[in-house]
Structure to design on (644 residues):
């Protein structure tokens, strides 16, 4: 009698254990998302062709669009104007506070698909600067008209900004950085895989030496771009009778997912006679960005500058929305440099905070000491900045 | 000896015939999906983070498959309206209206940070980019599909290995994209197509990114991108549409 009872009990217990573990196993098993349920029925159909002009929503607006932005930046920083790391000496302590605001208004009118007018005007205030109160706008930041539609030609005339060159930290190839200070006419002829553009421009000072200004006093820019799979090349030049000639050439290739680029500039201008070459690498992984650049320059006699820069950025590194950035720049001729690191994070809608640390090193009179952007020329500084910004 | 030579010759012929037939399958798929003129449509792209938020982008995509061109213009969100991507062959241009610069990058990159790659938006190039290394039949819901294992012919494509489910009409219904090591990176489902003339355009697509996942309860959720394609048109577009200057012109 005992043996069958024992056997039955054991079997019952075993069965319970097996059932329990299966239940646990089922609860702990993971269900992976699958798309196969989307194919239960054939949902193919015949499309009804849309008759509307899908470009119109981008090219034309029945009314001019007024938009703008407002940005106010304030913060505090402290640090030392003189730092001797070998002796661990930190002298000339200094602390500052500051606040600036800037407002921009923009008008964008697109009455037809061929014509567009754009203008923007800005004003700013720096209560700790020379004058308390909004600065009177000295003119339009940009005001230009676009015309297109004749044999693919694109024309822009007025006051506008533009940018050449590929550098992220150093950008010697940007021969048009001062275009927005004057008035220019730009024409572009797109030709399949080529693009040819020409600019005629004028700015203050061009006509100073001429009793009767003529086309000879204008500045001229020309550029040609060409691209093939994975490679783009460009060449350009700038000439103005007083400035002299500057020529640039650039190339960019995508290798292994990395952008590799190079720019070279030669200048015959007496003000900055010589040559400059830039080499760079860039990669954007969405949550991380890496940029590295090397710039060398000189004249026919000698090599005058060798500088390097590395910048790394991490998006959403901490707490889902804190960004971290580093940038290091070094001049290998005079051994000066700068190091910058910052955390940026949103506080409320439109308000972003930044905690930063900045160091500039090198002897007095060296490249980076001369270009120290700190308002108090501190060599080592720590600070907190808040930026409130809105677009409307 | 003659018998062996004849047998060898017959085998070679047979292999070539099979390879040609398989190439014809991919070529037929490409022909069904690529248009001879311009084609444009509105794409509604909804990206859902695993267990998290949803982002919606609406874009108008213009394609000129014969020249390997496409232009994508963002309609929504309003902060991105007017931003655009121009693809010329394997090159992709993005215009930054703030910096007034063009960024030149690879078509392998993600579109608007979603699971879609920029290369998904252009013409179909299966026959040019892949070769078939395996084949079987499988039922996918209501579709009797042929399943093909594909191997990339060059490193220009986004994924070195793929597996595609092709329905009897010759349309790709599902695709699994793998890394070289065999890790499943992405699953794409195209449950419905719309016929436009003699060609087909996807009507809805769903993409799961297996590299971005999160455990939610007893489920593993992947980053999911759902695409609805509407308002298709084959209206001819001007050549100037597929230029960088056009991106600069319409940027805000």
């Amino acid at each position: 009698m005992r043996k069958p009872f024992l056997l039955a009990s054991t079997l019952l217990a075993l069965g319970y254990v097996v059932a329990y573990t299966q239940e646990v196993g089922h609860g702990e098993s993971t269900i992976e998302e699958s798309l196969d349920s989307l194919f239960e029925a054939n949902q193919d159909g015949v499309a009804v062709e849309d008759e509307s002009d899908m470009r119109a929503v981008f090219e034309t607006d029945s009314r001019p669009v007024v938009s703008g932005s407002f940005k106010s930046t304030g913060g505090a920083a402290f640090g030392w104007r003189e730092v001797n790391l070998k002796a661990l000496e930190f002298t000339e302590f200094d602390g500052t506070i500051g606040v600036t605001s800037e407002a921009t208004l923009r008008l964008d009118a697109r009455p037809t698909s061929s014509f567009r007018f754009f203008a923007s005007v800005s004003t700013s205030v720096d209560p700790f600067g020379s004058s308390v109160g909004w600065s009177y706008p000295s003119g339009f930041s940009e005001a230009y008209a676009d015309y297109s539609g004749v044999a693919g030609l694109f024309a822009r005339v007025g006051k506008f900004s533009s940018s050449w060159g590929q550098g992220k930290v150093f950008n010697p190839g940007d021969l048009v950085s001062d275009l927005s200070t004057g008035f220019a006419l730009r024409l572009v002829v797109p030709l399949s895989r080529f693009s040819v553009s020409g600019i005629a421009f004028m700015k203050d000072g061009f006509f100073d030496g001429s009793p009767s200004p003529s086309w000879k006093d204008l500045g001229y820019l020309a550029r040609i771009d060409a691209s093939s799979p994975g490679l783009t090349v460009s060449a350009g030049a700038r000439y103005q009778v007083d400035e002299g000639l500057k020529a640039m050439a650039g190339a960019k290739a995508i290798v292994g997912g990395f952008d590799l680029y190079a720019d070279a500039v030669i200048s015959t201008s007496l003000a900055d006679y010589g040559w400059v070459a830039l080499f760079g690498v860039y990669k954007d992984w969405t949550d991380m960005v890496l940029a590295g650049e090397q710039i060398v320059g000189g004249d026919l006699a000698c090599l005058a500058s060798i500088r390097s820069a590395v910048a790394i950025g991490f998006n959403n590194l901490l707490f889902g929305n804190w960004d971290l950035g580093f940038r290091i720049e070094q001049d290998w001729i005079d051994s000066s440099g700068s190091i910058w690191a910052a955390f940026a994070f949103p506080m409320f809608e439109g308000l972003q905070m930044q905690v930063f640390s900045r160091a500039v090193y090198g002897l007095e009179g060296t490249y980076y000491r001369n270009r120290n952007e700190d308002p108090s020329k501190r060599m080592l500084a720590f600070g907190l900045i808040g930026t409130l910004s809105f677009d409307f | 000896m003659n018998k062996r030579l004849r047998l060898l010759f017959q085998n070679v012929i047979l292999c070539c015939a099979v390879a040609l037939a398989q190439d014809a399958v991919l070529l037929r798929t490409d022909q069904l999906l690529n248009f001879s003129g311009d084609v444009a449509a509105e794409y509604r792209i909804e990206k859902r983070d695993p267990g998290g938020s949803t982002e919606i982008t609406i874009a108008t995509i213009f394609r000129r498959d014969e020249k390997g061109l496409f232009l994508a213009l963002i309609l929504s969100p309003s902060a991105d309206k007017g931003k655009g991507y121009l693809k010329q062959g394997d090159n992709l241009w993005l215009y930054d209206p703030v910096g007034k610069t063009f960024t030149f990058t690879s078509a392998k990159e993600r579109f608007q940070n979603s699971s879609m790659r920029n290369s998904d938006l252009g013409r179909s190039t299966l026959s040019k980019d892949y070769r078939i290394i395996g084949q079987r039949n499988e039922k996918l819901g209501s579709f009797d599909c042929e399943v093909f294992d594909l191997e990339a012919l060059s490193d220009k494509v986004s994924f070195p290995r793929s597996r595609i489910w092709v329905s009897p009409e010759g349309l790709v219904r599902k695709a699994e994209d793998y890394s070289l090591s065999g890790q499943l990176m992405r699953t794409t489902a195209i449950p419905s197509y719309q016929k436009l003339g003699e060609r087909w355009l996807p009507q809805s697509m769903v993409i799961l990114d297996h590299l971005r996942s999160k455990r939610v309860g007893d489920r593993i959720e992947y980053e999911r991108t759902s695409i609805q394609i509407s308002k298709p048109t084959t209206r001819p577009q001007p050549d100037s549409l597929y230029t960088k200057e056009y991106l600069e012109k319409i940027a805000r």
The two ends of chain A are 90 Å apart (CA to CA). Confidence is low (pLDDT under 50) at residues 15-28 of chain A. The first strand of chain A starts at residue 31 and ends at 32. Chain A touches chain B through 57 residues (CB under 8 Å).
